[in-house]
Amino acid sequence: MDPVVALVLCLSCLLLLSLWRQRSGRGKLPPGPMPLPILGNILQIDTKNISKSLTNLSKVYGPVFTVYLGLRPTVVLHGYEAVKEALIDHGEVFSGRGSFPVADRVTKGLGIILTTGSRWKVMRRFSVMTLRNFGMGKKSIEDRVQEEARCLMEELRKTESSPCDPTFLLGCAPCNVICSIIFNNRFNYKDQHFLKFMRKVNENVQILSSPWIQVCNNFPVLINIFSGSHKKLFKNVNDLKQYFLEKIKEHQESLDMNNPRDFIDCFLIKMEEEKGNPQTEFTTEALINTVNDLFGAGTETTSTTLRYGLLLLLKHPEVTAKVQEEIDHVIGRHRSPCMQDKSSMPYTEAVLHEIQRYIDLLPTNLPHAVTCGIKFRNYFIPKGTTIITSLTSVLHDSKEFPNPEKFDPGHFLDKSGKFKKSDYFMPFSTGILCASFLDHNVINLLFPFSLNHVLVFRLTSGTKTEISATLVIDTW
Question: Which family does it belong to (predicted)?
């Protein structure tokens, strides 16, 4: 057969298959724009502003609608009511994870972030419990954050009030906190091994957020056909896994079952306790992937929040002045902030919440999937269907947050100036899949600590993603 004819026949079959699959599910799924064969609705979504595209589609099709990312249907939930109904009221059914062919290639279904079902529950329960009760009475997470904050301030003082870009230092601090929790060791900011490690972690986060990876996730066949940033991702992950394995071996050689020093020790002890269980989830490979997930999820989210937070305070000096006044009144200048101070600092607490609401760090969250078929708002969503929740539509809801595009700590304060909680506050999602314990602890301590030591902020130049500011640090 002529190669050209064969190619045409293959393409025709693919088009027919695509049309058949898309039409066969249309009567069951929520409404949505008509997809193109193979491509689906990709051309109707602006990859540079996905949230805006989804908002525009919700105005036409309602708070629950379907888009096709390639051949796969994806149900989008837009607005607080729809997101709450799915992730909280039907949390168990919507607790699955969407398909990530690129990430699945390196995690093999292990770890925390991309696992699902009983495996996810076991790993999450162990990780959260270990972080909360870390060290069996030894050095607490709060102590480690305070120690790292002091190191961060020392590095900032070295700038001697000259213009600087603190992006790198703000990334080192949360990464070092996680290092101390997992490895029982922090690193000097100029340590070459630490710098190489940080570079790979940050590079992986950037690659995973790139449009090319989204294309590969929707068309997995491309992963093996083309070279691209995913190859660099695979290499970085393999290098990181090797580094983690070396650390694990060091821990195994010096492990004291009655005296765990860090997260790895606690996991190794659990492995030893369950070594007779053939169904155990606690294996060396699972530990490597869990450690990789903790670094990937905890470093970038925290450092980005700190960076954007400083930018917002540079832009709103009146807010900075009020926060500084509250810090001086409650904490003073002679001790470090601690978690107990939160209840006495409603304005600072409101500012921290407003920063996370305003920057909208995870606009569409990580995709979920339904674990079984479910009738949802008179539609039927088949088992395994990918679910996208628009956190932007919740965090920027004008009914809950008047003038949502404006940075205003008053969104989280009542008329008497007390901190006001909001069910709409979902910076890292909500429901049973939300596991942001470490992020909140680090952000809540690092941020006021930074402000407690920085007397003057003066913006010299910069954009939302590039910081160039003069930090005038006290010398007492």
Answer: Belongs to the cytochrome P450 family.
pLDDT of 235: 92
Statement: the pTM of the whole predicted model exceeds 0.85: no
Q: What are phi and psi of 468, to 5 degrees?
A: -145, 95
* Contact (CB, 8 A) for 94 and 383: no
Token pair in block for residue 242: 């090797």
What's the average pLDDT block by block, 10 residues per block, for the chain (476 residues)? 51 49 61 87 81 91 91 91 91 82 82 79 85 58 80 81 78 86 88 88 82 78 82 90 93 91 91 89 92 82 84 89 88 78 89 91 84 91 91 94 94 94 84 47 49 36 34 30
- In angstroms, the CA 471 to CA 206 distance is 27
Estimate the crossing angle of helix 346-359 against helix 317-330, to 10 degrees: 140
Q: What angle do CA 353, 359, 360 make, to 5 degrees?
A: 90
